[in-house]
Design a protein that fits this description.
The chain has helices at 12-27, 43-49, 52-64, 69-76, 80-92; strands spanning 4-9, 37-40, 96-98, 104-106, 110-115. The protein is of the alpha/beta class.
Length: 117
């Protein structure tokens, strides 16, 4: 099964509504399908969190596979420190992770984006 990540630009209330709906389904004894959602409050927050350099980093990892941060910096032609900073930020958002060998890779197969106003 494909690992799907949903990126959403939505107000915080959206996340609270999803939580409440999930809570109610569990209270009724129903099972929940796994849901991986990264919600950001507005478009400026989205573009600050997912800069063009970070998008390029994600694209490289998706296309070329997991590697060390050093190798990733070389592949991207960027400074190691800046790539390390971007990997740390993307890791906090669960967009990248490390495998058993310590290599950085994407944690999803498909990304779906949704913008709400």
């Amino acid at each position: 099964m494909a690992r799907v990540l949903e990126l959403r630009v939505a107000p915080p209330r959206d996340a609270l509504d999803r939580f409440e709906a999930a809570w109610n389904r569990l209270a009724e004894g129903r099972k929940l399908a796994p849901l991986r959602v990264l919600s950001l409050e507005d478009l400026p927050a989205f573009t600050k969190a997912l800069t063009p350099a970070r998008w390029a980093l994600l694209k490289d990892l998706k296309e070329k596979g997991a590697c060390s941060i050093y190798e990733l910096a070389k592949r991207l032609g960027r400074d190691y420190k800046n790539v390390h900073t971007d990997v740390a930020a993307l890791s906090r958002m669960d967009l990248v992770g490390k495998d058993a060998r310590g290599r950085v890779g994407v944690t999803w197969d498909v990304v779906r984006a949704e913008l709400r106003f």
